[in-house]
Specification:
The protein has 2 domains: 243 residues, Rossmann fold (3-Layer(aba) Sandwich); 172 residues, no CATH class. Helices cover 36% and strands 14% of the residues. It has 15 helices and 13 strands. Strands 1, 2, 3, 4, 5, 6, 7, 8, 11, 12 and 13 form an 11-stranded mixed sheet that branches. Helix 2 links the parallel strand 5 and strand 6. The two termini are 20 Å apart. GO terms for molecular function: hydrolase activity. InterPro entries: AB_hydrolase_1 (IPR000073), AB_hydrolase_fold (IPR029058), Pept_S33_TAP-like_C (IPR013595), Serine_prot/Carboxylest_S33 (IPR051601).
Length: 491
């Protein structure tokens, strides 16, 4: 799932590994010939396997080129999982599931999706999951971010933003220096080629693919490169076709501003509970006063967490399902308290292999995905100017430095990817009121890649698999029928 630190940065050792034996000229990826994967039960193979009541997920390691353009060079390991079709007689093939990120593990997807609204597909498809390079049980860089330099209490919002930018630049420099060759190859393009290596190792001529959030970027990049190897593809809560980090922040702010206007009416109707004012105008005045006060004098919530004006802005752009939590947290901070959601937790560990637990987010992979192929975010002056422009255009939620903050000091220029149209069946679904991956991104992705767009009438990120509308996805993967129009969402 994508978030502002997930995309919200909101999770090995086997007896044998598989080595690919050469790549064809077509797009520099794995060919059809590959040794079979050495499957073992994940629950007994992977340390701290997080799936309770696992229906029988199997795990294996796949060896792939670190740089697919240099197949004879260094190799890395990718962790793969599988739930075999429960009705082998009706088996249609494999469905690769990529439910989100960057920075988080995806290997439990088969077990998770077998238990949700798409679970019917587990009868006639092998469900395939994997940890993308750089996260989870797959090979990665183990490096944690530092903390911004302490500033005097009266430091300006710009000074605090510059300190955070400089800290990110130092972290990026330190973490990429641990293994620069590997960090440079942490790209969506390479992950898509890893997917094709998985296809080859499974012995399949074609795969079906279901992607959510960042997983949609993996899917659309795969289809753009290997269209003839796609049986059917559905992408839900779609990433934009181009990673322009400043533009992504602007779209996110615009969507958030619309939600904020509705939130004002909602919270004014609950003044007896939250005490922001009995009209939308009064609530706006109270909330903006809190925002301005925290911009002048932020509230420390731990060594690494500061509640400032940007924290207020982040509370105002959420969808309706998060309004109650935002109102409660804003009221707590207004009274000088620290909300539970902002209290710091322990730093997660980052580890290697099936013999260790892949806890937490890998921030190095997260940043690399956006910075190796995304434009912008390198120059603080430009980042700050863009933020001030958005603050003027969107007074409630504008000006947050989110996507455009991760690439400070990134040592390499971007090599952008962009989906292209193909012939394989493609279905997109976008959520009309969503702020994490705004609906406009799904529209833009459809223009770039083709396919049919289904509009889901909610603002809930990646909710398709939990809706009655999931029946359309099940039908699509079995018949290839696409669906336009709209579908009811979560209320």
């Amino acid at each position: 799932m994508l978030s502002t630190r997930h995309l919200s940065r909101a999770a090995l050792t086997l007896a044998a590994t598989v080595c690919l034996t050469g790549l064809p000229a077509v797009a520099g990826t794995a060919g059809a010939a590959a040794e079979p994967l050495a499957w073992k039960r994940c629950a007994t193979t992977a340390e701290d396997w997080p799936v309770a009541n696992d229906p029988g997920t199997e795990c294996a390691m796949l060896t792939v080129p670190m740089d697919h353009a240099n197949p004879q060079g260094r190799t890395i390991k990718i962790a793969v999982s599988r739930l075999k079709a429960t009705d082998p007689g009706r088996r249609r093939g494999v469905l690769v599931i990529s439910p989100g990120g960057p920075g988080i593990s995806n290997i439990t997807a088969p077990a998770s999706y077998a238990a949700n609204g798409l679970g019917t597909l587990a009868a006639d498809h092998d469900l395939i999951g994997f940890d993308p390079r750089g996260v989870g049980y797959s090979d990665k860089i183990d490096c944690t971010e530092g903390t911004p330099a302490e500033l005097p209490p009266g430091a300006s919002a710009k000074a605090r933003a510059k300190a955070a930018f400089d800290q990110m630049a130092a972290s990026n420099k330190r973490c990429t220096a641990l293994d620069p060759a590997f960090a440079r190859q942490l790209t969506t393009t390479n992950i898509a080629r890893d997917v094709d290596a998985i296809r080859a190792a499974l012995g399949e001529q074609k795969i079906s693919f279901y992607g959510v959030s960042y997983g949609t970027a993996v899917g659309l990049t795969y289809r753009s490169t290997f269209d003839a190897r796609v049986e059917r593809m559905w992408v839900d809560s779609v990433m934009p076709p181009v990673l322009d980090l400043a533009a992504m922040d602007a779209v996110s702010d615009a969507v958030g501003e619309k939600s904020f206007e509705r939130f004002l009416t909602w919270v004014a109707g609950r003044d007896d509970e939250y005490h922001f004012g009995t009209t939308a105008a009064a609530a706006r005045t109270t909330i903006f006063a809190l925002r301005d006060r925290l911009d002048r004098k932020p509230l420390a919530a731990g060594k690494k967490t500061v509640l400032d004006g940007d924290w207020v802005r982040s509370q105002l752009g959420v969808d309706a399902g998060g309004w109650a939590a935002s109102a409660r947290d804003l009221a707590t901070v207004r009274e000088g308290g620290i909300p539970q959601s902002a209290r710091p937790g322990p730093d997660p560990a980052q580890v290697f292999g099936f013999d260790d637990a892949p806890l937490g987010m890998n921030t190095t992979q997260y940043n690399a995905i956006f910075c190796n192929e995304g434009t912008g975010g390198r120059d603080f002056g430009r980042v700050w100017a863009d933020a001030q422009d958005r603050r003027q255009r969107f007074p409630g939620t504008g000006g947050k430095i989110e996507f455009s903050s991760w690439c400070a000091g990134w040592p390499w220029p971007a090599r952008p990817w962009q989906p292209v149209k193909g012939n394989s069946p493609l279905q997109l679904s976008g959520h009309a009121g969503e702020s994490v991956t705004p609906y406009a991104w799904a529209v833009d992705a459809g223009k770039a890649a083709g396919g049919t767009l289904l509009t889901i009438q909610d603002g809930v990120h990646g909710s398709l698999a939990r809706l009655p509308c999931a029946a359309k996805a099940i039908d699509f993967f079995r018949t290839g029928r696409t669906s336009g129009g709209a579908c009811p969402g979560m209320q």
